[in-house]
Amino acid sequence: MNFLTGPKNSWQPVMTGDTTVSSYWLNWRFLICAIWVLMSMVFSSFLISKYEGPRKSRPGNPQTRGESEGILYYDEVWRPCLKGIHPGWLLAYRVVAFFVLLILLILTIAVDGGSILYFYTEWTFALITIYFGLGSLLSMYGCYQYHNEVGGDKIANSNVDAEQGTSSASAQARNSNMSSIGKSSGPNEEHQARQIAGFLGYVFQIIFQMNAGAVILTDCVFWFIIVPFLAIKDYDLNFLIINMHSINVVFLLGDTALNSLRFPWFRIAYFLIWTDVFVIFQWVVHACISLWWPYPFLDLSSPFSPLWYSLVALLHIPCYGVFALVMKLKHFLYSKWFPQSYRYAMPKSEQ
Q1: I need a surface site. Which of 115, 207, 264, 279 has the fewest CB within 10 A?
Q2: What is the pTM of this model?
């Protein structure tokens, strides 16, 4: 059991002062940090209102009239990006990932108590667990739809074969006409026949892009900032802590390699709002209860706290950008290795 939990004297930040007194909040440090958070939320709301949804295309750009920046098609949430892969494989992957993450989350709460949900890492870990749970449900329904499509195609093909002897000439004429139409029509003609994703589909896409930034942020902050500090304090990492900060990105990258989801840049807004909500939650808790901060750079008693808040806010951009580069690498390699079977409609912001 010690292998899981590590030593009993778990490290916690030192209390720097009473966070419930008014002097802790009524000062220039909190005012500047509050302005940073407010500006982030206003900017994020602007991006969402301008680009989110299927009907909000970029104005003044004729190349985006047929397809908006925030569009999502229904089959993109459950269909693999390679035509040769059955949707059932993506479903199986998401189900396995969901149960592994859920078991780890439950085990962590059972070992460390409910206070572990006080940390941003556990928020993100719970979010990625929800992602794979919702993805499993959408993939189940998608496999059902795929089964009906395949069955319908087989019936249609048998009917065509039976009638081929009596209408071969007219069929050839129709095929030639359809072929000329297909050559002259662009990709927007194909998109018009596809079904736009519903509410759960958009929620799934948004959670995917929130996780993309949050997972990179939590793992980078932990391994490159917190772990070196803990090493100075002679704190031993246990099995659960290591897994909480590694397996999440492994599962997310695996799903990224299989799925057909898009990655427009404007949805960094949801990632920013996710962190803003966590910060505001911490402020409310500390205003009511005097206790240690889960991360030292959140402590508002330091004169450098506005600098720390601004640095962490700016860190969102490279963390989100790293995953955007992963998506670009996926598109480049798959288009090169599987040019006939790879299917993906890349938004203009990703090109």
Answers
A1: 115
A2: 0.82
